[in-house]
Amino acid sequence: MISAYIDAALSRAHYELMQDEDPYYGEVTELPGVWASGKTLEECRRNLTDVVEEWVIIRIAHSLPIPPLGDTRLNLPRELSVA
pLDDT tens, 47-62? Predict the structure, then answer.
């Protein structure tokens, strides 16, 4: 379930080259604050995967909404026990 959401997020990611030490920049504009960079496109994509995963976990932990990405949704139980 979460992996499908992460895949959907990555399929919507936008990448660009920047004049920076880590020239590859990627973001998922539909998920506020979700961006990453890397020395290569692969590294940027791996970093972005981690950021999306952490973003989802934080949203779950704080009972914040997680928007659908196209037809992909995270259907979570109404009450979660986060220890």
Answer: 999 999 999 999 999 9
Q: Residue 36 in 3-state DSSP?
A: strand
CA triple 72-77-82, angle to 5 deg: 110
Q: Contact, 18 vs 82, CB < 8 A? A: no
Q: Given this model, what pLDDT does residue 76 score?
A: 75
In tens, the pLDDT along 8-53 reads 999 999 999 999 999 999 999 999 999 999 999 999 999 999 999 9
CA 22, 6, 29, 77 torsion-angle sign: negative
How far apart CA 60 and CA 65 sit, in angstroms, is 8
37, 14 in Cβ contact below 8 A? no
Each as own residue / partner, the long-range contacts of residues 72-78 (CB below 8 Å, 24 or more positions apart, any chain) are 72/4, 72/5, 72/7, 72/8, 73/5, 74/1, 74/2, 74/5, 75/1
